[in-house]
Amino acid sequence: MKKRMTLVLTGLLISGFTLPTTSFAHTEHGSEDGAVVDSEQGDVKDSLTEFYLNVDKDAVNPDEGKDIVVEPGDGNEDDSYISSKDGRISYDIFFDISGSFKLDVTIPLYVCMYAYGVDGSVITPSTNAYAIENKSQNKEGSEVSIGRVVQKTPYVQIISNDPEANNGLIEGVSYSVQDNSYTFYSKAPADTAAIENYKDVSGMGYNSSGNWYAFFYKDGTGFDFKKATDLDGNVFRKSVFPTETDSILLEVDVMYKDVTFPKEEGIYIGLSKDRAGEEGLKVRVTEIKSHRTTWTMKPANTPGKSLQAGDFVMTLKPTAAVNQDVIDVSEIMGGKDITSQGWDIDANDKLGIDIFAKIAGGSVNKTEHVPVVQVSYKVVPIF
Asked: Per residue in 114-123, pLDDT tens?
């Protein structure tokens, strides 16, 4: 179901944080909660994680390295509502949401990793230990209303019964309501009065080149003609503005989560329904971005033998998303739009993120505990 929100979510802010000053022992690698994104209506914040690296240049990793698994995701199809007056025409319904919400999302304030200098392997938090947690809520009194309606009409390509006659031009067209069929005439028939819904189009330039389409509207409009460039495939899309006195009747009820718009009432712009009570609010991560780096970020496909002192490789991979592609941290310094990748988090749920990292082997790096990179996430509500 397509949805549109009227709340303008702007004013991105970087959450404040304090960097720890003490070192972490090997047994303490992992993540610590913090950096809460907590905003009321009209305000969305970014929050970031500081990734620390504790390098032991003479140590050997007793564990085997991690494998990066890339799994394809599936997209979701939009619902479309059929007109009860003319079953050939359908509508996409877009919703407006009014009222207020509380966007409350938590990510770890910092993540500490442990690096083995001999082979360059890095110990990162176990699966789902590093996660984005959603505690967001809709507030009582919010409403959902019909904000926009798009009509989708399937036009029929003009095909002449005699394409060689008259240079492919047609002189007439008719439509049979019973058969839902069109007939295109390269020459006007003798008795046009006997033909159901016949229209004379001689001299109009419509032809069977494949560039012209036609549709017969049963509401009294009659025939309409479009060029292929005006259509999406064979479908003509246009926004319509039904009113309470001229509403659109559909074959089934329109549903928005737990809110029902009964088909008997019709659909029109501004028709609203209450959303009873307070409920959890789903959120989506729409952007991921790496910020200041202390070490030099290298592409994830850089061979280990090519890494030098101070080089760092890191990837992030969501454990549950429509698209679970691995994200190379070196490629997101300018930000990466992941709106379509399905980093969605249900109410009172978490999205785990697996981390893979590597440094140069051979004890070339200094033995130290340093922050290496910051990663921030932009989160928006889904109504």
From this structure: 888 888 888 8
